[in-house]
Write a structure and sequence with these properties.
Order of helices and strands: HHEEHEEEEEH
Number of helices: 4
Radius of gyration: 15 Å
Mean pLDDT: 92
Distance between the termini: 23 Å
Structural class: alpha+beta
CATH architecture: Roll
Number of strands: 7
Low-confidence stretches: none
Largest sheet: 7 strands, mixed
Helix content: 10-25%
Amino acid sequence: MINLDDASTPQERLALEIFKAMDDGRIVEAIPELTSDDFVWSNSGLPDLEGQESVIELLNSGGFANEIPILAEMTHFTADLVHIASSGNTVFTERIDHHWAADGRDLMTPHICGVVEVRDGKIVRLHDFYDTACYRQEPTAPQAGFSLAERHPDRVWA
């Protein structure tokens, strides 16, 4: 899970806020708050998403499962921050992302190095670099004790 206290600069905090929004299941609502109008989101092996509207449209229409079939059962996302560093308005993160199914299977677990660029207090670019072999990985077995309902009691789970 993302801890905003790991940030040591405002730019690092902003970068962590977007990952925390993903982790909390509120990324669609956070995009206008955290990103610029001309925001670009790049992921290895996928077309760039250009502009807030294209990001929100993709997320509202099934998300990255449209491009990565293994994510069709994804109900939740978490990220483990390994490292964070910054230079001016550029933030570098090393993360392990988890894409969960409701039964606690980790569908896809890329080890990511990401670059977040900030301008005028908004994220203008998020570029995640990782091995696209994760698109074909085998999901884990269900995790013992995994409960989305306990983790997020304010959300309705199918």
